[in-house]
Amino acid sequence: MKRKTFLTITSAVAFMIGTFALTSPGVLIESVKYAAPSETANVMARTVGILLIFVGVLDFLVRDHDDSPTLRAVLIANLILQLGIMPIDPSAYANGVYKTIGSFAPNTVLHLFLASGFIYYLMKMKKPQGRLAMNDQFSS
């Protein structure tokens, strides 16, 4: 799969899940996560929804970019996001917040797949030239 395709898929997934979390937090919490509903949980789901929409838009906007330090930073940030999110749902299940394996397993597999993709495309990227080489371009 090409990086552009991968980033297009990640942007669509983030945008769709973010839109769902923003517009239907109660459905997400009760019917998908099988967790106890609350206004606090709804607010947090909406917050996560906006953040996921942002990540989706960012990934969509950079999907055509050539290798650069900025694109590398975007991919690293996406990787850290996936690695940071990955243990949250299993931990919620282990602590009894989520009641079924289906409440967390699909997301955990998705985060693992996406993290693997970001690692793969980071490894395929051309190595940055370094600060000195970048500064020399602009001093002429």
Protein model, in words:
The mean pLDDT is 91. The N and C termini lie far apart (39 Å). The chain has one domain. With 140 residues, the chain is mainly alpha-helical. The chain contains seven helices and no strands. α1 (3-23) packs across α2, α1 runs antiparallel to α3 and α2 crosses α3 (39-62).
For the record, give the distance between the C-alpha atoms at the N and C termini, rounded to a whole number. 39 Å
Tally of separate helices: 7
Biggest β-sheet description: none
Category by helix and strand content = mainly alpha
Order of helices and strands: HHHHHHH
Helix content estimate = over 70%
Low-confidence stretches: none
- How does the overall form come out from the CA principal axes? elongated
Mean pLDDT score? 91
Number of strands: 0
Rg, Cα atoms, Å: 18 Å
The total tally of domains equals: 1
Residue share in β-strands: under 5%
Which short descriptors sum up this protein?
140 residues; mainly alpha; 7 helices; 0% strand
Helix/strand layout:
Elements: H1 3-23, H2 25-32, H3 39-62, H4 69-85, H5 88-94, H6 105-124, H7 131-138
Helix pairs in contact: 1-2, 1-3, 2-3, 4-6
